[in-house]
From TrEMBL:
Residues 1-24 form the signal peptide. Keywords: Signal. The lineage of its organism: Eukaryota, Viridiplantae, Streptophyta, Embryophyta, Tracheophyta. It comes from the Eukaryota. This is L-ascorbate oxidase.
Length: 551
């Protein structure tokens, strides 16, 4: 057989293997997790934390695109509990999203089994407790989603991968923080910063990461904190950016990266320096007093300590904005499918609707509340998705209490479930306006979106002239700088009930979030799965008969 024919034959065999693999059921990964309280000492003082299998942070989910992830969660806390999966899109399956608006919580002493797939996704994500302020006590852990073997990745396999969960940490129990917020106050400065659950390392401490000279390593960095934007850097080393929130990027090299609340970045780090110890650094941004945490990276075989001089962090939010402008989607890299990421030409799609969302701070009945377009969200006793599915939504919430334009400044704020509707498969532009003096961060469940523009002041239609309509990085979490706006675009093609929230956790807890109901008119399994048989029930739907299933 000629070389040409053998090459064609090999290509055909690979293609047939690919499509046959797509037709068979994807592999299953099973996890059994026990959620309990434990004691940690991040700043030398004992504090209660939420542990998973006695670990803080919790165990890693290390999987491949389209794997079936089955997680049996046993709740041994004295309070209800839910886990959500930050950045996992739950295609057709908001039943597994683990939000108060989609799922009844797991009661104390009981269990619930999640079953989800990172469908056509790759990248770095994390899970976390979604009820109230429980995230302040931990309960979070990393998720790695690898590309399938037949899908090329735009960089060579690293020698190893490291999860780096960075966060501000308040050093106060989550129940105490809840009482603080319920009394009408807000979160101030945290106690400090943690890296993988640990405070700053000292010279001579045990290393957290080991490198071998001459090799390249992947660091998956996620800001899992409550409020602070954090700058990530490694002493003496540069960071080659390769992924943001599940999308391959152009591989620019940086000395440091600003990672805002809820965001995840992957960088490649070459072990090309003199063998010794080096500090990995995470420090707060946009605060009067900078708080810093360090961890030690050790070159194998070395006993030389790190130098105490830490690399400096940037100082202005203008620097951070300019860094964001340098991020570019890798148009030629494959995503979770063999087609290039850039095959989706978002800049050529007609916008069918523009929604402007402005945050606000106000007092309602003498207590602090945060709102979007004049409505401060509160969770009803029946999850919104279940109320909608069982047809009792009219007694639980009202759709579209807000309009697509923010109300006039100073308008009264309403406390109610904040649910808007989006027509299935329409391409919508959302403008996030931040009239306040602190950086904000927003996350949208169920989707990735294109952040096409950012700018100071108020957004106007003229602002579209500044948009990046070619290679904005598709992602799930985006920052909005003080007195500024951010524009995002996406197609609402994932039926379900999806949370759009502030990642600034006191703002989220006190109302700065909403849900977007995306209903398929077909009531078809092609567009959305039925409620799973093991779904927990609560409130008014506990004894209701099941509605007709999707077919």
């Amino acid at each position: 057989m000629s070389m040409a024919k053998s090459g064609v034959t090999l290509a055909i065999l690979l293609f047939l293997a690919f499509i046959s693999g797509g037709r068979s059921e994807d592999p299953y990964l099973y996890f059994t997790w026990t959620v309990s309280y434990g004691t940690i000492f991040p700043f030398g003082v004992p504090q209660q934390a939420i542990m998973i299998n006695n670990q803080f942070p919790g165990p890693v989910i290390n999987c491949t695109s389209n794997n079936n992830i089955v997680v049996n969660v046993f709740n041994q806390l004295d309070e209800p509990f839910l886990l959500s999966w930050n950045g996992i899109q739950q295609r057709k399956n908001s039943w597994q999203d683990g939000m108060p608006g989609t799922n009844c919580p797991i009661p104390p002493g009981q269990n619930f089994t999640y079953h989800w797939q990172p469908k056509d996704q790759i990248g770095s994500f994390y899970y976390y407790p979604s009820i109230g302020m429980q995230k302040a006590a931990g309960g979070y852990g990393p998720i790695r989603v690898h590309s399938r073997l037949l899908i090329p990745v735009p960089f060579d396999p690293p020698a190893d991968e490291f999860d780096v969960l960075i966060s501000d940490w308040y050093g106060i129990g989550h129940k105490s923080l809840t009482r603080l917020l319920d009394s009408g106050r807000h979160l101030t400065r945290a106690r400090g910063v943690l890296i993988n659950g640990a405070a700053s390392a000292n010279l001579g401490d045990a290393p957290m990461f080991f490198l071998e000279a001459g090799k390249v390593y992947r660091f998956r960095v996620c800001n899992v904190g409550l409020k602070a934007s954090l700058n990530f850097r490694i002493q003496g080393h540069t960071l080659k950016l390769v992924e943001i929130d599940g999308s391959h990027t152009m591989q620019n090299v940086y000395d440091s990266l600003d990672v805002h609340a809820g965001q995840c970045y992957s960088v490649l780090v070459a072990a090309d320096q003199s063998p010794r110890d080096y500090f990995l650094v995470a420090s707060t941004r946009f605060q009067k007093t900078v708080q810093t945490a360090t961890a030690i990276i050790r070159y194998s075989g070395s006993s030389v300590p790190a130098t105490p001089d830490l690399p400096p962090a940037p100082t202005t939010w203008a620097w951070s904005l300019n860094q964001w402008r340098s991020f570019r989607w890798n148009l030629t890299a494959s995503a979770a499918r063999p087609n290039p990421q850039g095959s989706y030409h978002y800049g050529q799609i007609n916008i069918t609707r523009t929604i402007k969302l402005a945050s606000s701070t106000s007092a309602v009945d003498g207590k602090l509340r945060f709102a979007l377009n004049g409505v401060s969200h509160t969770d009803p006793t029946v999850p919104l998705k279940l109320a909608e599915y069982f047809g009792i939504n009219g007694t639980v919430f009202k759709y579209n209490l807000i309009t697509d334009e923010p109300p006039a400044a100073g308008s009264p704020v309403t406390i109610a479930p904040n649910v808007i509707t989006a027509e299935f498969r329409t391409f919508i532009e959302i403008i996030l306006e931040n009239p306040e003096q602190s950086v904000q961060s927003y996350h949208l469940n169920g989707y990735s979106f294109f952040p096409t523009g950012m700018g100071p002041g108020n957004w106007t239609p003229e602002s579209r002239k500044t948009y990046n309509l070619l290679d904005a990085v598709s992602r799930h979490t985006i920052q909005v700088y003080p007195s500024s706006w951010t524009a995002i675009m996406l197609t609402f093609d994932n039926a379900g009930m999806w949370n759009l929230r502030s990642e600034i956790w006191d703002r989220r807890y006190l109302g700065q979030q909403l849900y977007i109901s995306v209903l398929s008119p077909e009531r078809s399994l092609r567009d959305e799965y039925n409620m799973p048989e093991n779904a927990l029930r609560c409130g008014a739907i506990t004894n209701l008969p099941l509605p007709p299933p999707y077919t």
